[in-house]
Model the fold of this input.
Amino acid sequence: MTVGHGRLVVSTGVLVYHRLEVAYGYDTGFAFRPLSPDILVGNDRFRVNFESNDLFLNFNILVHSRSGATYSQMGKNVAPQQNQFSVDYPFSEFAVNPVNPGDVGTIILIFQTGAIGSNDYAIRSLEAVNGDGA
Done:
């Protein structure tokens, strides 16, 4: 799974505390439309590829099952880095329930202020990958 072409670029402005949610598995009216059942099969982690990040950023991934009955969540505080870098979210380390690659209905990316306002960051891509080939 690789999401999108281009970049997600966020520049919040001076002392602005922010929260941005990017959701997959919903239609434009935010009605639940589960993702393809095989979208993550054969992979064991999400990999988020950053172009850069200027301040600490709190970044969470929330995954709901295809029925919507169960969920898993994992968050990290991403340190500032000027150059391109990647952050892995292994499915087995998600809280509440490990991610079941064959039962993913929605994926929600949650970006929010990590320490102080005025964040600037750019995301190149979100991928599902197998750690053996990482």
Observations:
- The chain is about 0% helix and 45% strand.
- The CA atoms of residues 31 and 96 lie 24 Å apart.
- The chain has a mean pLDDT of 88.
- The beta strands are 2-3, 8-11, 19-24, 45-53, 57-64, 71-78, 85-90, 106-113, 120-129.
